[in-house]
Amino acid sequence: MDYFILLTVSGIAIGVIYGLIGMGYALIFKATSVVNFAHGEIMMLISYMAFSIASSWTLPFWGLLLVCVFISAIVGLVIERVFIRPMLGQDVFSTVMVTIGLAVMIRAVVVLIWGADPLLLPTDIGDSGVEFGLVFLYTSQLYAIGLLAFCVLGMWVFLRFSRMGVAMRATAARETTALLMGINVTHVYAIAWAIAAVIAGISGVLLGTIYGLGPDLWTQGLRAFPAVILGGLDSVFGAAISGILIGVLENLSEGYIGQGLKEISGFLVILVVLMIRPYGLFGTPEIERV
Amino acid sequence: MNWFLKGTLTATLLTMGGVGAMAAPGVTEDKIVLGAVDPLTGPPSLLGKAHSLALKVWQEDVNARGGINGRKVEIVFEDDGYVPARSLQSLKKMVEVDDIFALIGTSGSSQLAAMMPLIDELGIPALNNMAVNSHHFNPPLETLFVVGPTYCQEIAAGMTYLVEELGLKDEKYAIAFQDDEFGDDVRCGYLAGVEKYGLDNVLELEFKRGQKDFSAEMLKARAAGVTVLVSGGVVAEHSTLLKEAAKNRMDITFLGAHSAHLTPVQALAGSAGDGYYAADYVPALNSLEVPGVARFMDLANKYLSESEMDSLNRYALAGYAGAMIFEHAMTECGKDLTRACVVKKMEGLDGFETDGLFGPVTYGDGVRHAPTAVMVLQSNAEDKTFSIVSERMEVE
C-alpha cells in the first residue's frame, strides 16, 4: 500500500505540471480554435528568462514568479501581435503551421542566447521539502500543486464572472455572432494568448526549479499534450484534471508494469477514452443540426 | 624557339607533377592544416566546445614552440551540431575546400560512423578521443585510431572498483539506462560486472532519453532494495536520478560513466550530487598533481579567455591528450610529412605517455584501439570538483 501511495503522490506531483501546461493549450484552443504547438517552447523561453533574472537579482521564489508572470504576459501579447494576428481570416491549419515555425524559432533562440548546457534555476527554495509521513515532496512540488489549484480557480472566476471571460466564451462558442454582438475578437485573442503564456511561464519556472533547464525542456509540452486531449481540447479545467490523471497513470504503469509503458500509457488512455467520448472527458460535444 | 618553348613547358609540368606527387594534402613548406569536427551548437556542445578549446590551446602552444618540424599548425573547425549527416558534410568541405591533412576531432559516435567511409576512402589519418564505440575499430580502418575505452569497458572497470576496493559485493545492484547506443553500452559494462562477480542484479530500468521525471523508477528501485545503482543517463538524467534517490532517502551508491564526470551534473543535482562515482580515462581538471593536467591548465590560462575557461571539462583533457599523440606522430615523420608516415608512426606507438592524461597508449599492426586504463573519480558537490579515488585499472 505504501508503494501505491508513493507512486500516486509522486504521479500527482508531475501531473500538476502537465495540468498547468495543458491549461495553456486548452485556453488557446478554446478561444481561437488553434492548437498552439509552440506552447512548450514558450514555457521553455520563459523559464530561461527566469534563469537570467534569478542569476542577476536575488529574488525570493514568489518575487521571481511574479516578475515572470508579468514578462510572460508581454511575451504572449507580442507573439499574438506579431505572429498570430496577421493570420486572422486564414484557415486554422495555416495558423497551426505558424505555431510550428515559431516553436522551431524559439528553440534556436534559446540555444543562441543561453547555450545548450544544462542549467539550474537558482531559487531560494532549492532542494528544500516537506515530509508527510512516508511521502517527501520538494517545496517546489508543493507550490506546483497550490499554483494549479490557484490557476484553476482563477480561470473559473475569470471565465464565469469577468466581462472579458464571458466575451472569450462567446467568441469560442460562435465567433461571427460574437463579432456581431460588438465583441472585440482580436482583443479576446490577445488576452487568451497572454493568459496562456502566463500559465506557461508559471509551469516553466516550476519545471526549471524542480528539474533544471535544458534546451530539451520544450518536450515537456509534448508530454502534457495527452492531458489536453483526454480532458477535451476546449476544456481548461479538463486539461488540469487530466494532467493529474496522466501523471498518476504514468507512475503506476511504470511502478507496476514497467517495460517502457510509462511513455505510452497516456496515449493508450486517450485511445480508449476517445473511442467512448470523442470530445474528451470534459470537452464540449459538437452537435450538428441536419 | 619552338623546341625551347616545348622544353620549358615540359620541365615546368614535370616540376609541378613532382611537387604534387610528393606533397601531402594540407601540408606546405610552412604549414600543416588539420581538421576537427565537433558539436559546437545544440545540447552536446558541452562536449564539443571543451574539445575544440583544447585543440585551440594545443595549436597556440605548438606554434609558440616553433610548430612541427618548422611548420605551423592550423586547425579548421567545423560544427556538425551532433548530426551525422552534417558531420559527413563537414568532412567533405574540409577535404575539398580546406585541403586538410588529418582529422583531429571526430565528434560523437554515430557522427564518426557517418564519416568513416570517407576517412577510409581518402586515407585520412584520424584520431577519435571523444566518443568510443566498438564499431569504430571493429573491423579496424587503416587510418582511424581510437583512444579510450568504450563505455562498456569503462563501467566494467568502475564495477571492479566498487567490488574490489569498496567491498560492495553483497549489495543489490540495479541499472537505469537510456534507450540509445550509449545506454546499451553502459548496460553492457554493467552486465559484464554482474557476471564477473556474480552480483545480485535486482532491477534494470530502461528510460527514454530526455526524460525528466524519475520518481516512479526510483520508487521501484527503493521497493527492490537497491543499494548500488549504475547510471546510464547523461547529464540531466543522471542528476535527476541522484536527486530522486536523495528525495526518497535512499542510501545508495551511484556509479556513472565519464559523462557523469561533468560539473553541470553536480550543479543540477545540488547536495544530492555529492559522493557519486564516475569511471573515466582522464583525470579531473582539478587534478593538478597530474603533470599533464597542470600543464594544460597553465596553457589554458594563457590562451583562453575567462568565459572560455568556464567551458572546459574532461573532454578538453581528452582533446589535448589526443593532440599530444598526433603531435608526436607528426614530429616523428620529420620534414617528409605524409599521411602514410603518420599512420605508420601512430601504429608504432607502444606505451606512449601523455603525462598522466591518458594511460599508456599502444597501437599495432591492425590494432587501432587503445583502450587506455580507467580510474574512478568521486564527486565533491560543495566545491564542484572531483577526486581521483582509484589507481588506473586496465580494461578487459
UniProtKB/TrEMBL annotation, chain A:
InterPro entries: ABC_transp_permease (IPR001851), BCAA_transport_permease (IPR052157). The chain crosses the membrane at residues 6-27, 59-80, 92-115, 135-159, 188-213, 225-249, 261-280. It is found in: Cell membrane. The keyword tRNA-binding does not apply. GO terms for biological process: amino acid transport. It holds the Pfam family BPD_transp_2. It is a multi-pass membrane protein. The keyword Transport applies. GO terms for molecular function: transmembrane transporter activity. GO terms for cellular component: plasma membrane. Belongs to the binding-protein-dependent transport system permease family. LivHM subfamily. This is ABC transporter permease. The lineage of its organism: Bacteria, Pseudomonadati, Pseudomonadota, Alphaproteobacteria, Rhodobacterales.
Automatic annotation (TrEMBL), chain B:
Keywords: Signal. Residues 32-380 form the Leucine-binding protein domain. Residues 1-23 form the signal peptide. InterPro entries: Leu-bd, Peripla_BP_I. Gene3D superfamilies: 3.40.50.2300. It comes from the Bacteria. Belongs to the leucine-binding protein family. This is ABC transporter substrate-binding protein. The lineage of its organism: Bacteria, Pseudomonadati, Pseudomonadota, Alphaproteobacteria, Rhodobacterales.
